[in-house]
Write a structure and sequence with these properties.
Order of helices and strands: EHEHEEHEEEHHHHEEEEEEHEEHH
Shape: globular
Radius of gyration: 19 Å
Structural class: alpha+beta
Distance between the termini: 26 Å
Number of helices: 10
Length: about 350
């Protein structure tokens, strides 16, 4: 759908639950927030230094786009390096809740920093044709050695935070911290520096269309411009609710559940539709905007059969995790067909 004015949010701003990952009740509070809203702010994550350095480096690096300092990719599918505005404006796919489409954004994408080495060593998970969608290009195209070091430290810090969160969720749901870990070894997560260059204010304009995330969980840290404009959909009223960004503590990560974890948890954890609009009050388009996003996604070959507890019946069919990832959804048809054929011959579950 074309970009235009969004339907106005009518509800009072939503104050996200703030969960301290070091607190004794962190497991229960995470489960409660993920089960009722699907969004929360997390502190006590232990990654403050890595996040701060990555935000500063990302802001400096992406501003360099104006001077042509970065290698640009007009890729036919998602891959490491810069995804230009021209490419991003063509990106569109269906999620469980809505159609994802960003507007006027540049993304710098990073894959697992160990992937290139493992691919060169012949690990079939990375080097095989069935992994082409995720690791056809496994070298991260950093503009400088310093930016590479900064973002590799950030990526590894987010891996640790995500592992901690997944263990907390497993413990809170079932008492077993390894409940979801079969899906997270050799995960296919992307780290993304999402950048909107300064533009004339356009209050209410859509920056990212309503959608749900596809992976397990998403972690967001904000730089220039802040989180203003984030809205979530109330599952009862269907109304769009603005997030009270002033209530998000400094240094907190915004956490939301994705479609893959919604399925894996048998629907107990909510993948909530959300969107990003230009703030209707005090628009800040006159400044650059940056979000540092870690899309924690399952390994591509795992069966996302719901993990049921307490005598539950599964609410979802088994699903090959790779087919729910961003990389698969934006991949060329030929690569999708190749993966589908491989997953079928390997007797992996189908959508």
């Amino acid at each position: 759908s074309p970009r235009g004015q969004s339907e106005a949010a009518t509800s009072m701003p939503l104050k996200l639950s703030v969960v301290d990952l070091t607190a004794a009740d962190a497991c229960d509070r995470l489960v409660e927030a993920c089960s009722h809203v699907g969004f929360q702010a997390v502190v006590g994550h232990g990654a403050d230094a890595e996040i701060e350095a990555a935000v500063r480096t990302g802001e400096s690096m992406m501003a360099g786009l104006k001077r042509g300092d970065l290698e640009t990719h007009r890729a036919s599918h998602y891959r490491p390096g810069l995804q230009t505005r021209a490419h991003m404006n063509r990106e569109e796919y269906r999620t469980v809740e809505g159609t994802y489409r960003p507007f006027d954004r540049e993304d710098f994408v990073m894959v697992n920093p160990d992937a290139a080495k493992r691919k060169s060593e012949g690990d079939p998970y990375y080097a095989g044709a069935h992994g082409e969608i995720w690791y056809g290009e496994a070298d991260n195209n950093f503009p400088t050695k310093t930016s590479q070091e900064v973002f590799e430290r950030y990526y590894r810090a987010m891996e640790r935070v995500c592992d901690r969160i997944m263990r907390h969720l497993g413990r809170g749901l079932s008492g077993n911290e390894e409940m979801f870990l079969h899906a997270t070894s050799k995960h296919t997560s992307n780290a993304v520096v999402a950048y909107h260059a300064a533009a004339p204010p356009a209050p209410g304009a859509v920056r990212v269309t309503p959608h749900s995330d596809t992976g397990l969980i998403t972690l967001i840290a904000y730089g220039a411009g802040g989180p203003e404009g984030l809205e979530v959909k109330d599952s009862n009223s269907g109304e769009w609710v603005p997030v009270d960004t002033a209530a998000i503590p400094p240094g907190a990560l915004v956490l939301n559940v994705g479609d893959s974890l919604h399925r894996l948890s048998n629907g107990r954890l909510l993948s909530t539709p959300h969107r990003v609009i230009e703030p209707r009050t005090s628009p800040r388009s006159a400044t650059d905007r940056l979000a540092l996003i870690f899309f924690f996604a399952a390994r591509y070959d795992v069966d996302l059969a719901p993990v049921c507890v307490s005598g539950e019946q599964p609410r979802f069919r088994s699903t090959v995790a790779g087919k729910l990832t961003h990389n698969y959804l934006v991949a060329p048809t030929a690569l999708k067909d190749s993966f589908d054929a491989w997953s079928s011959s390997a007797r992996l579950s189908k959508l």
